[in-house]
Automatic annotation (TrEMBL):
The lineage of its organism: Bacteria, Bacillati, Bacillota, Bacilli, Bacillales. Pfam families: Ribosomal_L7Ae. Residues 3-83 form the Ribosomal protein eL8/eL30/eS12/Gadd45 domain. Coiled coil: none annotated. SUPFAM superfamilies: L30e-like (SSF55315). It comes from the Bacteria. This is Ribosomal L7Ae/L30e/S12e/Gadd45 family protein.
């Protein structure tokens, strides 16, 4: 189950701004994207991940992703940081 990785992640960035920053800084190892999130939000970050060689994993819903991140609201994207 891909969401187990999110739950076990040592460092996590939730939301497009933080997740984008993590990819730009070269600190993200994997990006989780909710299938039901607005494509206007997710397309840009997915393209950035492809350009930077970051693995993109799709999950079924924003609600599931938010829950896996330990927040009460849905999350469109979440980035798992490299183990330092």
């Amino acid at each position: 189950m891909p969401l187990d990785k999110v739950k076990q992640a040592g460092k996590l960035s939730v939301g497009t701004k933080q997740a984008t920053r993590m990819v730009e800084l070269g600190k993200a190892s994997e990006m989780f994207v909710a299938k039901d999130a607005d494509p206007r939000i997710t397309t840009k970050i997915v393209n950035l991940c492809r350009k930077c060689g970051v693995k993109v994993t799709y999950v079924d819903s924003m609600k599931q992703l938010g829950k896996a991140c330990g927040i009460e609201v849905g999350a469109a994207v979440a980035a798992v940081a490299n183990e330092e």
